[in-house]
């Protein structure tokens, strides 16, 4: 498990690197960030540092927090529907209601899919996400979540929906976020993923997703979710219309949110994939691999131990670059992601990864792999999970 607060400036490897940052004029921003007092300007300066130095600092911080161990979870993604009325310009997966290829799994299909993956692969988590379909009743989610918990004996954690889906469905059902999340947690929801954040900038969101939950509202909903005791993950989708300053503001907003609630488990950055999207004429190519490494490293330095887990970002960047991101401060691989449909819709082929192949990928990069659960605990030290009533599992 991660080490608690430490004086990173006293870590031997970091002290060596600080002399180099001083020579290059970056000592001030680095010291501010490692002391836990970052400004937007400091974070922007980190993005401008030489990549090798940025990565070395980030890896040294991760070594101080979790050492050389890298976790992964055996999971599946259940994209329960592709119907969505939010119409984000960066999404190739969404379909309008009534479209010929629009779908929504009925409750029995959704439950059966999870049960089959549990029986075949012994998955420990289902990432349950779709779109905003006004015809989907709240009772649908309650039925599916209860069915998953019952038929997997509570062994599959439900990491489900998003702040955007929760915000929209609370409005569609004319109930508060608190009441909606409480009902979902009672049915079996264990935690909430960070999807829908993209870049928490009003300017950017007005371009790429004008109908989506606003940046301010996304933060409010996530705050409300954590206030109820459910842990969350956070994300950033980069490489489209954002500036470095907006990336820095995004990271700082997440850090402030964590300092208020303390239930953000992890941060995941991935690049925008333009294939088959409305934005591909404006942004024809995805961001290069060095951008992933910069975002991973900067996130590690900004969040330090306060958000302990930084994922490798292999899903969009590929497994080889995912391996390299471990050298830049990542300490979690993410999941096997059986059943993922969103990225293939944008033309991104995904490898089929199982326990052995993930452990081989992590091990060949020079790190020690271990299987974890939904809450980032190593499975060998985690008791069987009882049927969830929400909140943080111990």
From TrEMBL:
InterPro entries: Aldolase_TIM, CofH/MnqC-like_C, F420, FO_synthase_su2, rSAM, rSAM_sf. (3R)-3-methyl-D-ornithine binds at residue 162. Residues 70-306 form the Radical SAM core domain. The keyword Acyltransferase does not apply. Transmembrane segments: none annotated. Its cofactor is [4Fe-4S] cluster. It comes from the Archaea. Binds 1 [4Fe-4S] cluster. The cluster is coordinated with 3 cysteines and an exchangeable S-adenosyl-L-methionine. [4Fe-4S] cluster binds at residues 84, 88, 91. GO terms for molecular function: 4 iron, 4 sulfur cluster binding; 7,8-didemethyl-8-hydroxy-5-deazariboflavin synthase activity; metal ion binding; transferase activity, transferring alkyl or aryl (other than methyl) groups. S-adenosyl-L-methionine binds at residues 90, 198. This is Dehypoxanthine futalosine cyclase. It comes from Pyrodictium delaneyi.
């Amino acid at each position: 498990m991660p080490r608690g607060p430490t004086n990173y400036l006293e870590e031997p490897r970091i002290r060596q690197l600080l002399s180099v940052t001083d020579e290059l004029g970056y000592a001030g921003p680095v010291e501010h960030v490692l002391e836990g007092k970052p400004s937007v300007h400091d974070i922007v300066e980190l993005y401008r540092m030489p990549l090798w130095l940025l990565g070395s600092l980030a890896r040294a911080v991760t070594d101080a927090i979790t050492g050389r161990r890298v976790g992964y979870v055996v999971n599946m993604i259940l994209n329960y529907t592709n119907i969505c009325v939010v119409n984000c310009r960066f999404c190739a997966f969404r379909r309008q209601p009534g479209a010929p290829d629009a779908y929504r799994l009925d409750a029995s299909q959704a439950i059966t899919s999870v049960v089959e993956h549990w029986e075949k692969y012994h998955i420990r988590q289902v990432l349950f996400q779709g779109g905003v379909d006004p015809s989907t009743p709240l009772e649908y989610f309650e039925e599916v979540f209860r069915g998953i918990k019952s038929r997997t004996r509570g062994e599959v954690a439900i990491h489900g929906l998003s702040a955007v889906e929760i915000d929209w469905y609370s409005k569609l059902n004319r109930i508060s976020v608190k009441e909606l999340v409480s009902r979902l947690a009672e049915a079996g929801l264990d935690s909430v993923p960070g999807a829908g954040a993209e870049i928490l900038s009003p300017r950017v969101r007005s371009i790429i997703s004008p109908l989506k939950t606003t940046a301010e509202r996304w933060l409010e909903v996530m705050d409300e979710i954590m206030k109820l005791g459910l842990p969350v993950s956070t994300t950033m989708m980069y490489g489209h219309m954002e500036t470095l300053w907006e990336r820095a503001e995004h990271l700082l907003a997440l850090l402030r949110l964590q300092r208020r609630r303390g239930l953000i488990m992890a941060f995941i950055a991935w690049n925008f994939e333009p294939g088959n999207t409305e934005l591909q004429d404006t942004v024809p190519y995805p961001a290069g691999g060095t951008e992933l490494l910069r975002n991973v490293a900067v996130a590690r330095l900004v969040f330090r131990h306060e958000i302990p887990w930084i994922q490798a970002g292999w899903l969009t960047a590929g497994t080889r670059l995912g391996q390299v991101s471990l050298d830049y401060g990542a300490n979690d691989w993410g999941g096997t992601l059986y059943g993922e449909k969103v990225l293939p819709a944008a033309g991104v082929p995904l490898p089929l990864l199982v326990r052995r192949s993930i452990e081989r990928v992590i091990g060949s990069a020079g790190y020690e792999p271990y299987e974890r659960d939904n809450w980032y605990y190593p499975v060998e030290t985690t008791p069987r999970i009882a049927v969830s009533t929400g909140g943080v599992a111990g």
